[in-house]
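Fold it.
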Amino acid sequence: SDVPYLNGGIFDKLDEDNAKESIEDSVIKIPNFLFYGIEILQEVSKGRAGNMQKVIEKVEHKGLNGILCEYKFTLDENTPFEEDIALDPEMLGLVFENLLAELDPNLEESTIKSIRKQTGSYYTPRKVILEMINDSLNLYLSKYISTHYPDVKDTKTKVNDLVYYNLHDDKNPSFDSAVVDALDKYKVLDPACGSGAFPMGMLHRMVDILKKVDTNNDKWVELKLKNVDKAQQADFNKVLTSHLDDYGRKLGIIRDSIYGIDIQPLAVQITKLRFFISLLIDQKTEKGITPMPNIETKIICADSLKNVKTDMFSNDAITKLTDARNRYYQPDISQEERYTIAEEIIVTLDTAFPSFAYQITGKRIAGQNKELIRHWFTHGTIAAPFFNMEFFYPELTECGGFDCVIGNPPYGGVKISDDVRNNL
């Protein structure tokens, strides 16, 4: 009851929640010892070859609770070293990948592989993610600082040391300011984000770098407040600074820098949940939980490989949509106001994309287009059959789009010879 509206649809009450299926054959009985363990007398063989004797010994079986107690469960996934992390929210992604292959327990191995290939659901090791993220940040920061801060000397070496080796000279305030400014402007997209491996990896790496160059978080908070209306700056400053410093860093990055798209609703929900957990662990929750930023407008369920062109009248619709979304995601409005604004957004999208439902169902039924758009926008339980930059991310049209597009390296495919590989 203390959890407020969370701006992501993760905890929305849906019609399919708590679905019930019953089998009347018999009552399923699960004995307690499966959970709590049991000690039994068991015949075991002891001795050496040729002189084996069978004796009765007391053997302990731990049970499920005993097994789980041996693991470390944590909400923090802020390390690239898998052996140090035990069971954290990243495990959701691994479970998700395996669930996709278990649509039918009677499927052959070749069919399971085909399902994974069709959906692109592959687990990427953290070390691979970290390497790709570091490479992209190194390229971006070097180019941005060299272009916008020509007075900073030896930029490439300083950025390389910071990104790859966490080495930082605190006697270069101009370089520190340049890095913070560059990260404030950074826009990165994973067009097939899955359960959020790359977005989460990018979030944590950016936080680590900000800790180095802006220890007190002053520069970062100042830049984040510049993007907020003056009337709301005081309230937003309170949100940024009322929790741990990492909360303010993460909030700004999630709100302004990281974007993700995936065609599978469950994957999108897991990504949002991981962001929510990441923010939660840095909150001081004594006074309640602070709502998430506009995560619904950043992590979108859609087909990023298909685009649709809008007509000449779209500019007015985009302006209306941007304004309505900003009002919709204000945490202090009532549910009735939110419902009214949602209807505005749905009507706008219905007008802009009249074939939304037809591309999903292949049928034209009166009212279906609007209803499916409502499910997509308010709950994210279905995927938009296309992706449109102007409507889905209108705030990026002015700044020219993304600075980085990142994602899984290709798995499988055609095997090439060593000679060809060496020449690539």
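The CA atoms of residues 117 and 412 lie 9 Å apart.
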